[in-house]
């Protein structure tokens, strides 16, 4: 594995001499660990947070055998003796204790969720039963064919007492919170949010709402990254837009590093005369990654200023988003107490052709999910590759990944598709 790329400061490296995607991921993974501490939050505030404790079931869920339907509970062993004809001897509704033990051959009127009376194991749905009144008593006729245990939910069938429900680091989804609530826990320990300083750079960059001078460009990356940071639950300090002035860049980064877990910058990542981020990182701290064999995003850099992680994303919006999803997202997740995970890849037939791709680098195209004439889901490529085209990001449902060794793609060939929804974005 290539290490310590900090000595490489040449933007014009051949791809074979740049750091490969897998090696960059390995370095990131090796260099980062959790920095946040835990805090207790009520379940109402737990959605999307990363769990900071293992959660075991303190009791069985459900806590008792109970009815899955409204109907009549009976003992299956009595069925043959009574021929399915049972006196209704008691009644039990959800939320009430089970009746006293029922004499042999008796049935109990029961409602969904009610505790199963002792000794009874099967429930007939009320729609399937006939009822008769005789001598002030109610009888039911239960049709044959019900399997013993039908319509009964067993104690602990959802979760058994003591079972691990969720492990520390899990990102809490609505159904996870439901599972925690079902155990009776009202509060959970979660990791506190990662504190991120967000920095835009470039003399040309202006904030929306401000007038745009000639040559000016609005700061779309700030809003792109701020929204992406929300998907990993980070809190964001807006460090504004820095001009291309080395001292200001140095001062801002040095200052931000003192009070943040991570700094994310955009722009100035390559080595033009006006690009100061890498020099600042080298002066103030240590660079671990720079110049990747990928497209887009090759000037992405990663390092640390003291204990503060720095991720220098390229200025081109497409490169900024791709680098965030591929590298910043797992890094911030680990800093925040989660796992370093790679997005899942789905194999899909390509609805495009590539006659010639450069070897030695991994390319990530903006991919659109489409349906072909046979109803098969295929991966279509946004036709233009420009790294400044936010339109491509908007059209896309994810990224198409073309590995280093692949130099062409035929129509219909399987390609890796990485849906944005697996990288924290919501579906449109
Ligand atoms: N001689 C070389 N030139 C370039 C190289 C190279 O290796 N050698 N790499 C190219 C690649 S690849 C990329 S990506 C860009 C990124 O470089 P920087 O990170 O230094 O970005 P800038 O030069 O500052 O800006 C690039 C581009 O993006 C626009 N930009 C910047 N910030 C924002 C923002 N906050 N919101 C919207 N748009 C932004 C900026 O105006 C430029 O158009 O460098 C290539 N050049
Ligand atoms: O990172 Mo750049 O986007 O390859 O143009």
N-to-C CA distance:
39 Å
Strand content: 25-35%
Helix content: 10-25%
**What sort of overall outline do the alpha carbons produce when their principal axes are compared?**
elongated
At CATH level 3, the topology of the largest domain is Molybdenum Cofactor Biosythetic Enzyme, Chain A
Bound small molecules, by name, code or SMILES, are: ligand LQZAQKY5, molybdate ion
User: What is the domain total for the residues?
Assistant: 4
Report the sheet with the most strands, covering strand number, pairing sense and barrel closure.
Answer: 6 strands, mixed
Weakly predicted, low-confidence segments: 1-9
**CATH class annotation of the largest domain:** Alpha Beta
- Main-sheet strand order equals 7-4-6-5-9-8
Q: Estimate the mean pLDDT confidence.
A: 95
CATH architecture of the largest domain: 3-Layer(aba) Sandwich
Number of helices: 8
Total strand count, please? Answer: 26
What's the gyration radius in Å? 30 Å
CATH superfamily of the largest domain: MoaB/Mog-like domain
Q: Given the helix and strand composition, which structural class is it?
A: alpha+beta
Protein name: Molybdopterin molybdenumtransferase
Pfam families: MoCF_biosynth, MoeA_C, MoeA_N
Organism: Stappia sediminis
Family: Belongs to the MoeA family.
If you had to describe this structure to a student in words, what would you say it looks like?
By secondary structure, the protein is α+β, with helices and mostly antiparallel strands. It is 19% helix and 28% strand. It contains eight helices and 26 strands. The protein has helices at residues 21-31, 79-82, 174-182, 220-231, 246-259, 277-284, 317-335, 390-395, and strands at 38-42, 55-56, 66-67, 71-74, 85-92, 107-110, 122-125, 130-134, 137-141, 152-153, 164-166, 187-191, 195-201, 205-206, 217-218, 235-242, 262-266, 286-290, 294-295, 301-305, 308-313, 346-349, 362-371, 377-381, 398-402, 414-419. The strands form seven sheets. It has a six-stranded mixed sheet with strand order 7-4-6-5-9-8, with no helix packed on it. Strands 16-13-17-21-20-18 form a six-stranded mixed sheet, sandwiched between helices. Helix 5 (246-259) crosses helix 6. The model is unreliable at 1-9 (pLDDT under 50). The protein binds ligand LQZAQKY5 and molybdate ion. Ligand LQZAQKY5 binds at residues 11, 200, 202, 204-205, 217, 219-222, 266-270, 275, 296, 298-299, 314-317, 319, 387-388. Residues 197-334 form the MoaB/Mog domain. InterPro entries: MoaB/Mog-like_dom_sf, MoaB/Mog_dom, MoCF_biosynth_CS, MoeA-like, MoeA_C_domain_IV, MoeA_C_domain_IV_sf, MoeA_linker/N, MoeA_linker/N_sf. Belongs to the MoeA family.
């Amino acid at each position: 594995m290539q290490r310590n790329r900090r000595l490489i400061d040449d933007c014009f490296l051949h791809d074979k001499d740049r750091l490969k995607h897998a090696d960059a991921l390995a370095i990131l993974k090796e260099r980062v660990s959790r920095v946040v501490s835990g805090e207790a939050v009520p379940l109402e505030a737990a959605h999307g947070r990363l769990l900071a404790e293992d959660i075991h079931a303190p009791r069985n869920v459900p806590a008792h055998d109970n009815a899955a339907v409204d109907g009549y509970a009976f003992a299956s062993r009595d069925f043959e003796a009574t021929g399915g004809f049972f006196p209704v001897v008691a009644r039990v509704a959800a939320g009430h204790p089970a009746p006293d033990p029922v004499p042999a051959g008796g049935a109990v009127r029961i409602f969904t969720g009610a505790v199963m009376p002792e000794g009874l194991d099967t429930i007939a749905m009320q729609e399937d039963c006939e009822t008769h009144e005789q001598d002030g008593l109610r009888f039911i006729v239960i049709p044959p064919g019900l399997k013993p245990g039908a319509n009964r939910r067993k104690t602990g069938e959802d979760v058994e007492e003591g079972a691990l429900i969720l492990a520390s680091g899990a990102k809490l989804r609505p159904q996870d919170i439901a599972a925690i609530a079902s155990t009776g826990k009202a509060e959970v320990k979660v990791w506190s949010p990662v504190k991120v300083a967000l920095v835009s750079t470039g003399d040309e960059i202006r904030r929306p709402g401000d007038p745009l001078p000639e040559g000016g460009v609005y700061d779309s990356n700030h809003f792109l990254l701020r929204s992406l940071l929300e998907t990993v639950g980070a809190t964001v300090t807006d460090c504004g837009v820095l001009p291309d002035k080395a001292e200001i860049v140095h001062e801002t980064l040095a200052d931000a590093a003192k009070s943040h877990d991570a700094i994310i910058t955009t722009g100035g990542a390559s080595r033009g005369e006006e690009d100061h981020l890498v020099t600042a990182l080298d002066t103030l701290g240590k660079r671990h990654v720079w110049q990747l064999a990928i497209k887009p995003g090759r000037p992405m850099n990663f390092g640390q200023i003291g204990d503060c992680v720095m991720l220098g994303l390229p200025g081109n919006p497409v490169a900024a988003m791709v680098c965030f999803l591929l590298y910043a997202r797992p890094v911030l997740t680990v800093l925040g107490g989660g796992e370093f995970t790679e997005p899942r890849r789905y194999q899909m037939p390509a609805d495009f052709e590539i006659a010639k791709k450069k070897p030695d680098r991994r390319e990530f195209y903006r991919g659109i999910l489409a349906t072909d004439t046979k109803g098969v889901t295929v991966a279509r490529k946004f036709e233009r590759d420009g790294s400044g085209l936010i339109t491509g990001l908007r059209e896309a449902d994810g990224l198409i990944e073309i590995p280093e060794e692949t130099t062409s793609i035929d129509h219909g060939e399987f390609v890796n598709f990485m849906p944005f929804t697996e990288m924290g974005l919501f579906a449109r």
